[in-house]
Structure formats: structure tokens, C-alpha cells
Amino acid sequence: MTFSQLQQPNACKITLPAEVVMTQTPTLRAAILQKINAGMTQLVIDLHQVEYIDSSGLSVLISALKRIEQLDGDIVLLSPTAGVRSLIELTRLHQVFAIYEDETAAIEYICNETEVA
């Protein structure tokens, strides 16, 4: 997992690894929540490398969203692979998360949200 600072001080892109499974989720959840609690309230979560995500992986996304919403922030998902997108749609999380295929558009949206907030 990598964190990349965006142009706004409270915005970053998080690139998740190829597998987001139960053995990794405690570490991933802690790292993401630590970033959020440190003031990163506008997140782009990049899923382009994720080949497999299980229910515990989806729970990491939901935990991050719940915490972000408490801080009036926002999260968008970027470029989920076909299998990950199918799971997101099956679980209806596409109704909760904005999903972008274009990185520039996702970053622009998140950074403009920062300016309004």
C-alpha cells in the first residue's frame, strides 16, 4: 500500500496492493485510519492493482468511509478491476462510493471538495 500526497494538504491517494484479504486487513485498516485521524479527510483509493478483495477488505473501505464522514470528508474509488467492480456492485457499495475510471477526474473532484470544505 502506498500513500501519495495530492495538491491539497488534507488530500491523498492510497494505492492498495494486489490482494486485500483477511490476513492484511488489520494492518491496512490501521494505516488508513491513522492517515484519516492525522487530517487526511479527502481520499482517492486506487484499486487498479487489486486482483482480489474479500469481505474483510470491503470492510476496510467501509470503516474508512464511516470515519471520513464523521470528519466531513470524502472518499472516491479509482479504477477497480473487473472482478473487484463486480463485487462492489454485488454488495451495492457502488451506491455508497463514487467510482472513477479517470485518475485526473478523481483527483480533481477530491481536491475541489477540499476547497469547498
Give a quick set of tags describing it.
single chain, alpha/beta, two-stranded parallel sheet, about 20% strand, 7 strands, about 120 residues
- Percent of sequence in beta strands: 15-25%
Uncertain spans, ≥5 residues at pLDDT below 50? none
Distance between the termini: 27 Å
Specify the structural class: alpha/beta
Form type: globular
Q: Tell me the major beta sheet.
A: 5 strands, mixed
The average pLDDT value, as a whole number, equals: 93
Report the order of strands and helices.
EEEHEEHEHEH
Cα-based radius of gyration, to the nearest Å: 13 Å
- Strand arrangement in the largest pleated sheet: 1-2-4-6-7
Count of helical stretches: 4
How many strands appear in the DSSP assignment? 7
Specify the helix fraction band: 40-55%
Molecular structure report:
- This protein is of the alpha/beta class and about 120 residues long.
- It is about 45% helix and about 20% strand.
- The protein has four helices and seven strands; from the N terminus they run βββαββαβαβα.
